[in-house]
Every structure is written in C-alpha cells, then in structure tokens.
Amino acid sequence: MSDKNALIQPDRGQNAVSLHLVDKNGLDAFRKGLNAAQRTALEAQRFEGDAGSHAILPDGEGWMAVAGVADAGKLSSWCMARLAETLPAGTYRRIGGEPGAAMFGWVTGQYRFDRYVSEPKEEGPRVLLTSEVKAIEPILAEAEAVMLVRDLVNTPAEDMGPAQLEAEAENLHKAYRAEIRVTRGDMLEHDFPMVHAVGRAAARSHAPRMIELEWGNPRHPRIAIVGKGVCFDSGGLDVKPSAGMLLMKKDMGGAAHALALARLIMQAQLPVRLHLLVPAVENAIAGNSFRPGDILKSRAGISVEIGNTDAEGRLVLGDALARAGENEPELVIDFATLTGAARVALGPDLPALFAREDATANALLEAGIATDDACWRLPLHEGYREYMKSDIADINNAGSGGGFAGSTTAALFLDRFVPKGVDWVHFDTFAWRPSAKPGRSKGGAALGLRAAWKMLRNRYEEAG
C-alpha cells in the first residue's frame, strides 16, 4: 500500500478537496447552503445522508464530496473509510470540524495485501489533512499495528512459519533495543515439553521454538503478553478435513496480535516491564506426531492427557503461560485463535474475552467500545472444570462436555497454567474477516488489539 505516514498530514492550508460529513438530521441545513447546481447534483445522485453513502458535487472549477454518517457530532473509526477506498487519489480536508477518530479508518481503508500479485493495482494515496497534529502519530501507530496483524495473518504458512515469527520479534528487538531470547532445538531440554510435542513433527525449517522478548525499566510494573503461534494447523493425527484447513494459515493470529501490541507498547514508551512470549510451532503430521491418548508433561508440572491432537493451541500456550508466571507479572494478556465454539457463539466480529478480575474485564469492554473494537465477555464458569478431568492424568486437553461450552473449557484449561492471584486476560479471537467492511479488508483482522491497547494506556499512563 502507499506510505502510511503520508496518509494523514498536518493541515497547513494546502490545496485540498472539501469533504462534508452530514447525518440525516443535518441534511436539510446542508442543502440550504448549496447553490442550484450543487443541489441538482445532490438530487441526481439520490443522496439522502445514509451512513456510508456519498456524492460528488461541483465546487467552483473543481469538486467536493459529501458523505453520510450516523452522527456528524460523534465520528466512528469507520465513517470515512469508504471514502478513503473509493475517492480519487489526492488531498482532502473535512469542512466543519476535525476528522477525529475517522482518521484511523481513513488509513486502514487504504490497506492492500498485494505481496503475491504480479501486477499490483497502482493507486495514489488519499491524503487527509488535520489540525489535530498531536493525534497523527498515535493514530498512525495503531493503524500500522492493525495492518501488521493483517500482513502476518494473510501470509501463507510456507512464508510465515516459526522462523518468520522469530524474524518479526528480531525486528522489534533491533528497533526498540529489547532483550530477545529464542529457545530452539530440543525443547524438552529447555523444559517446554508441550511446545516440543506439538511442533516435533514439522520439517526442520519449521522447527518449534519459544520466542521471548523483554523491554522496559525493571522497576516498572511487569506485564506479559502471550500469543499463540501455531503457523499452520493440520489437526495432527486427529486431522482436519480439507475445508477445515483452508484458513489455518491464520492460526498464528494470536502471535500476530501479541507482536503488534508489543510494538505499540514499546513505541509509546509505556511505563511497564514487558515480557512478550510466542510459542511458535507447526502442528504437522509425521511418524513422530504426538498421539491421542498420550500423556504430556508440562512446564508447570501438570500432566495432560491428549484427548484430541487438534486442541494443540492450548498446549503450547500452557507452557508459555507457565513461563510468563515465573517472573511474577501483575498482568498477563494472551491472544489465541483458540476455538470454533467462540465463533459459533459470537460470530467473526467479536473476540471472546475471559478475565479473572471484573475490573479488568470491564476496563477492556469499555476500551473496546471507545475504540470501535468491541469485545464480549464469556464466563470462566467453575462448574465446567469437570469437563477437563482425566482418569489417568491431571487434566485432559479436550473437554468431555459433548460440545458444550467449548470456549469456556479451553479458557479453563489455560487458567490452570497461570499462577493464582495473577490478573489474567484471555482473548479467543478469530483474526480473520470473512467479508470486507469499510476500513476492514477481507482476510487477516486485528480483533481485540485496540481494546487491549486502550486499556493498557489507561491503566499505566496514568500510573506512570
């Protein structure tokens, strides 16, 4: 796509096309301010102020645009995104107010994933001017983080394996002078037995690893961000049907969210001691695949009976969460494309949110609404722990609830590996958009990222 930093610029009186944002309540007043030619053009295009619609009107020797929005006094992230997708290349200025939150969708609406297209469509940038100069950098940072998630998730597994996730962490290490530690090779020797079991059947080029990055002042509050990095999920010996594998390049979407959130934290110099953890594996099929019925050790000392090799994400996260807990963080947030049950319950737009602390859950829900990145809380219901029981081990990785409460039982499994008393949040996110919406392209998607970032800023910027 175009240079993201050029898409929003300070308004210094440059020549620009006028943009008018009008809701239904303000349409009559807007009409009265037009000349006869402009009113005729508006009527010819049957513009009625519906959200998402727009019209092109003559304006002296040039032209201007008018767009319908739900509420011209309270702009959403997406209300100008369709304009950014469809207007001709050029420079634009909102008339009658600042673009505010709509700047975010203006940038993400111009996202294109054309890495594999031999002749990408050439499009010049649509530049938006604003006098809110201090807002430009944080909005661009958020937009770039969201588009990083999209890029990573959209990339096919052959080009986005554990080594490539490691390379992304290396980029963060170099850019922000963070400490990096990558555990490769025999993961059993390094006490990551469940990461080893899930990833051992993959080719050497996609060998399993634990990627860790630490940044920030050790005197600041310690937080851990964990992301599921299953770069492709065949299902293992409990193999998925072919239709179930089509989107499994996105099974590292949790890792993409974690990397993007870590970048936001470091870029903004948030006063925390950050510990990023990404267990990166491919759940492949080979003669040494782990099997249904196996009993796995874990870093936490909990024995796990394998009821289903396709419930592998919770296994690698278990070792990562146990590792995170060893440094006594005050907050742990994990992201994972973990269960189809969450999608059945909430659809593709809403990430399922699980949290131990009500105050943290409420802060995330409020942050999601404020950033147009809504989440929905599901329960860590104690009564469903019995679904994870095993007759021969401490816990089973596949619930025995007959398909009931699949996302909750997965979250309860993870809960066993987080030390008691730690403020822990789990996002069961889809990381994918089945169909495009303004500012939100079809394909890889960041769901829950902006909510988490807003909550962290509210929590730690004030404390700092």
TrEMBL record:
Query: Which Pfam families does the entry mention?
Result: Peptidase_M17, Peptidase_M17_N_1
Q: Which residues form the Cytosol aminopeptidase domain?
A: 308-315
This entry's Gene Ontology molecular function terms read:
aminopeptidase activity
* SUPFAM superfamilies referenced in this protein's UniProt entry, alphabetically: Zn-dependent exopeptidases (SSF53187)
- InterPro entries named among the record's database cross-references: Leucine_aapep/pepB, Macro_dom-like, Peptidase_M17_C, Peptidase_M17_N_1
Per UniProt, the keywords (alphabetical) are: Aminopeptidase, Hydrolase, Manganese, Protease
Which PANTHER family does this UniProt record tie to the protein? LEUCINE AMINOPEPTIDASE-RELATED, PEPTIDASE B
Family under the similarity heading:
Belongs to the peptidase M17 family.
Q: What is this protein called?
A: Leucyl aminopeptidase family protein
Q: Provide the species name.
A: Novosphingobium decolorationis
